[in-house]
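so my prof wants the structure for this chain in the tokens format not the other one, which i didnt know existed until like an hour ago. anyway here's the sequence
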Amino acid sequence: MSLLIVATWPLVRRRDIERPSTSTQPPGVAHHEAGHAVAAWYFGYPIDFVTIDPAEDFACRCIASPVLKKDGASETDVKPDDYVKVLKAIDVCLAGREADAVCTGRRHWSGSRRDRHLAVALAASLCRDSAEIAALLAWRRIGTHALVVKYTEEIDAVTRALLEHRRLTGNEIRVAINSALARRPTPLNVEGNESL
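here's what i got, hopefully its the right format
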């Protein structure tokens, strides 16, 4: 079964996304949604689109394949390959919040309650009790933070494209990410005269 990862920002102020940012840091909503999009791209999930338009019912939609029953209750038997899929889906859920932390220096759940609820539901499909869920989410937050830091330039590229166009298709997200990847410096070998 596929599960939609939906991130919403009900407290978004329209003026924050209608005016282009004059500071070096883009507005938080676009950065948050770009974090989800880049994490979904990194894990190979197809992305329908991402938008910062508050007129739409949702802000970011990515397709994942976690192991959840239709009623949201966790499965009792999680296969090893399903375990990895669930961890990746948790990372996509957490990526918006971690992108916020990198962008603003603050880590909070306001505006991303659905992200948190979905991450907890996914973790519950792997864990036996609330202590295990908390530990798993803390561990994945660390991994997701490292992913966001590694791909900050790509998140910034998607953010700029979101601020310019307000809605991006999966293909437009890939173009923004690939343009940022192309600008990365090529690593040098030990002698420093050719790339690895």
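also thought this was worth mentioning. Residues 1-26, 63-76, 192-196 have pLDDT under 50 and may be disordered.
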